[in-house]
Write a structure and sequence with these properties.
Layout: H1 39-43, H2 47-59, H3 66-79, H4 98-101, E1 104-107, E2 128-132, E3 135-142, E4 151-154, H5 161-169, H6 178-186, E5 191-195, E6 205-211, E7 221-225, E8 228-233, E9 238-247, E10 255-264, E11 269-277, E12 283-292, E13 297-304, E14 309-318, E15 324-333, E16 338-347, E17 353-362, E18 368-377, E19 384-394, E20 400-409, E21 414-423, H7 427-434, H8 440-456, H9 462-475
Parallel strand pairs: 1-7, 2-6, 5-8, 6-9, 7-10, 8-10, 9-11, 10-12, 11-13, 12-14, 13-15, 14-16, 15-17, 16-18, 17-19, 18-20, 19-21
Antiparallel strand pairs: 2-3, 4-5
Helix pairs in contact: 3-6, 7-8, 8-9
Organism: Nicotiana tabacum
Protein name: Protein ABCI7, chloroplastic-like
Domain SUF system FeS cluster assembly SufBD N-terminal: 57-205
Length: 481
Amino acid sequence: MALSALAPTSVSVSSYLSTPTRISQKTPKVRVFTKPKLNSIAALSDPYVLQIAETLEDSLLSTSFPPLQKLRETSSETLLSTPWPSRKDEPFRFTDTSFLKNSRIEPVLPPKIQSSSLDVFSDTLLPTISILDGYIMNELSQLKELPSGVYVGSLLSVNSEAILKRVSEYESGFKGDLFWSLNGVGTPDVLLMYVPEGCKVENTLVLRYISGESSDKGSKALPFSNPRVLVLVEKGGEISIVEEYVGGDKDKCYWSNSVMEVVVGEGAKVSHSYLQNQSLNAAHIKWTWVQQESTSTYEHIEVSTGGKLSRHNIHIQQVGPDTVTELSTFHMCISDQTQDLHSRLVLDHPRGVSQQIHKCIVAHSSGQAVFDGNVQVNRYAQQTDAGQLTRSLLLEPRATVNVKPNLQIIADDVKCSHGAAISDLEEDQLFYFRARGVDIETARKALIFSFAAEVVDRFPNASIRKKVETHIRELLDPSRL
């Protein structure tokens, strides 16, 4: 791996560490390094980041499978020049990651679990793929018969030469932040979802991410998993995906560091629903990268309510004309949480359409929500229609929200708008309910739920929509607020 390519002599990555860290230690490996040109980069590398990478490397089985090996090597090289983010870095100005850095990070090993010990299908009849601590679990999955040519499963288990060739041709070239690269180094496998040309998958597919390994609050240990998904939808194909992140005990600590890459072919459509309900003491960091070809459609609907630290990075690139992008997100803080959404849409071609609505509720005095949304309309993206709106409810005096909606427009024939609003519930609305005999707590609950409903109602699957509605109503219990 490229992490090992630090010097022309036989030394370990750990020999570059000059300060003690809180990472779980293992016996260092001895390797022969073959790329002296990286010496100058290594001298400037962050020892803490290199130690995490070394720990991840030691926890994984080596592989000679070209796509996975290439991913790990590319990510390793990137980590050599990537420091741990701080509040001085603009993308993390409002997001404190000290919770992670002050923990003892422990990569999760392959799970040894009986399928009967987890009840993962009790609330859905939809085809489900289970990912336990980053590992694809076939025994915990229930996939109905898929259309001919569709593949959903481990990248390491693909036996179709045509699909392998397509995967080997794919290369996003995208470089995310530190957490994107850590996932590339630490993922044990990639869940591949492949839809061939002209194929429409009728049934919604559920990806259920389960965090099994965890530690008690105050122990400083933080089990660390790195699930990764690659979605390739060819010309004219269609698929609907639901990502659902769940944890066990609400007081448990762990870190889920997830990546999904989506390629939407010409005229294809992807509907992507995303539910995040992790433990309130967990860390959840997510990257979603999307590439849209001409006349394609990508719809994203998100509800995020869990995690002590939750951050979602969305990067969408329109690489053809007449593309449609719709983003609808709802975040809610009910305790000492940070809910962070960083989104970026890049439009390079004519007649692109993008609509984004972001809503958040902060219902705790120590809660914080962050929204940084960027829409970049470049020179040749003429006749673009781009809209962006963020609305926030602060229900406690010291609750915090930091919003930064922004448009960067170079094209001159466009229709673009953005806006932001932050407030508490309006007294006139509460008075309207009370004048009709509705008590104040019920009135507040109804108004808050209706605020969230604009996003929740956009879930295309009725069973998922009902499930989310029930979950939000439980969170809005008057005793919580």
